[in-house]
Write a structure and sequence with these properties.
Layout lengths: L6 E6 L7 H12 L3 E4 L6 H11 L3 E6 L4 H14 L6 E6 L3 H9 L5 E2 L5 H11 L4
Parallel strand pairs: 1-2, 1-3, 3-4, 4-5
Amino acid sequence: MARRSVRILVAKLGLDGHDRGALVLCRAFRDAGMEVIYTGLFATPERVAQIAEDEDVDAIAMSLLNGAHGTLFPRVVREVRKKGMKGVLILGGGVIPEADHKKLSKAGVSRVFGPGTPLPEIIEHVRKGVPRR
């Protein structure tokens, strides 16, 4: 039986209009053989959760550069879990102070990646963190 590709949602949250990093991630995930869904700019946590449910994703990669990660990342986790999607891997990235990583981890974000993280490291985290289907 063939195993399906990892389906990953790349989410650009809130009022952050800087999407270059998110687009780089979309291409890297695609080139790694994953199916990529991109929210586009200005997604709300509720919209991200709805897209994740509709698209039956395995993972959500959130990108945020405007400092609202402490509010928006945990809201995405809550909205996704409210929908019963407990097995979805949720990771975050952007300009996020190291001091906030532990708080985000406690909120359900599997890992936070900062600027300059090698793309293979992010891809490997997704591959290891997504349950086999």
